[in-house]
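Q: What would this chain look like folded?
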Amino acid sequence: MTGCAQLQVVPAKIHYWEVDEQVAAGNYQAALQGYQQIAEKYPKSADRALYCIGYLYAHPQNPDRDYQKSLDSFKRLVSEYPRSEYRQPSESFIPVISEVTKRDRRTSSLRRQVDTLEKQV
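A: My prediction, written as structure tokens:
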């Protein structure tokens, strides 16, 4: 049985390497898709994929940044992989990303108010 589990780990590592190359090249959308495929295909090693997904969705150079998806990924990792080595850093990101998400919502609300006031003037 141990041999079978190890067989799954090797392809997962190869897949991670390929996706990590996408990140290095700045292809964030391709990398996100790759990490999502890894999470689905290799659930035993999906904790790293979830961490990378959370990180990439919040990455400042990602033009399709989505803080809510980042937060969801980190929370899922903490919930589903309590013994993961990525739990601690994910728990550190959660309050930061939560605050950014709240501020983004507040900023959007204020922009709508400014637009309404400008129309009135």
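The two ends are 73 Å apart (CA to CA).
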